[in-house]
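Researcher: Watch the backbone:
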Amino acid sequence: MNLNYVRIALYGVLFLLVTTLFNLWDKEHSTSTNQATTSSSSQKEKDETGIPLPSLPTTSGETKQTQATSSKTVLVKTDVINAILDLKGGNIVNLNLPTYPESLEKKNSPYQLLSDDPENYYVVQAGIRNANAVNEPIFYQAQQTQFELKPGQTSLQVILNGKNNKGIDFKKIYTFTKQSYLIEMVITATNTTSSVWEGQGYEQLVRKNVEKKSSLMNAFNFSSFLGAAYSTQQETYQKLSFKKMENHALDQSSQQGWVAMIEHYFLSAWVPINTEHENLHFYTQASEEGLYSVGIFRPVKLLEPGKQMTQVAKLYVGPLITRDLEKIAPHLDLTVDYGWLWIISEALFWLLEKIHSVVGNWGWSIVLVTVFVKTLFYKLSESSYRSMAGMRKMQPKIQALRERYGDDKQKLSQSMMEMYRKEGINPLGGCLPILVQIPVFLALYWVLSSSVELRQTPFIFWIHDLSLPDPYYVLPLLMGLSMFIQQRLSPPPPDPTQAKVMMMMPVVLTLFFLNFPAGLVLYWVVNNSLSILQQVFITHRIEKYPPKSKAK
């Protein structure tokens, strides 16, 4: 087998991967905002099982201007959450994250996760509804319009009280905790009437299929996903695109699980507390207004006069941080999607995080991880570079064989393989460095694009955000230069056409890498630089101490 053909094939695979990643990057950073597609079927009041679903909120024809000072809303402030509760329903309709700026240019503008703006509708809802009535809003009251977690406090309770038109009393309690994006919710319904009342608890997440306007603050993501997800006893983690929610509604029962809405870096999720081990109904629905919901129904319960029913759930609204999510519910940490190379990605991130805890800089952490990976595969690379050095040394003999056999490629190939065998050279050995780089490259790609910890993190000098492209293109140019040097150190292809293809590869990849995150290009530059040093060192040793030929 011709080594150069294999090398070109491997570089071709790498080129295709980079091209794919670039296209996804371009799509992710498109300046246009994709509006929701309208479901082709009309909204049904019941799902496949016949259980009435809560109507999705309608935003058309009404523009809400939610103000904290309004008597119909309640403002809640903690050290990590700013939330607005609408007293009509008692739900969180607006929430931003003050510890996560919208962008480096807007450091004082917190990232907006939830919003009741009709154009970017995204809210969380929960309640105990009349099982025999679909639309029955409950109007709550609060003792004050603003709640704030004071210094020294570890938690903050917001208590809402309401009554429906059937005379059922409701109390909804939200408990916010210091330095936490997890909110505990308890709802109680008390039957103060003389009649039996049928109640049914539910939790759901509702949003419009609108990607937030892309800006360079966002890192690209190989599997950047915007949509819903759920987990049950039968299916540990499943993603649901908006298109899938239109065509096939989720209809599943389980005693445990959760539902979520996922976007790049951030998550909202309901985790019901089911102490009675009852069957919970997991559902999705889509409306003609372009709204999509994923939720959970509790079993219908008969509430006798004077009796009370309680519903407890946990709500997470915050960043996709693995170590936090895995403590909340089983498999919730899988929403941090590292792709099909997740084993390598998780190992790389674990190593990055450990190094970062010492050096305090994610850029230097990437450098040190690259050094570690290179050291780990040193022996493998050493064998590869020895083969490449041997191949380069054999170029005069190869040229002599080429002149001897002319266009007889079969005899030329057989003679070359025989010569490699006698000299103890593995003609495929030089391909191993490329093979080793590809999975690590892809795994690090997912880590850099999926880990919110690396969002808006600086390196040195002009690199203010490792998830953004190098603004002055220094790293991509250094990457291209390092690839060119590697090409010069490698044995040249015998065919002129192959040689031209190989020489063009650094130029083409440099052009693609111009818009890649600085963190990923940094890895590539360091990896190539270490490869060059290792290759020069090994080649020098071989020239100084040539291996003995196996020929007799």
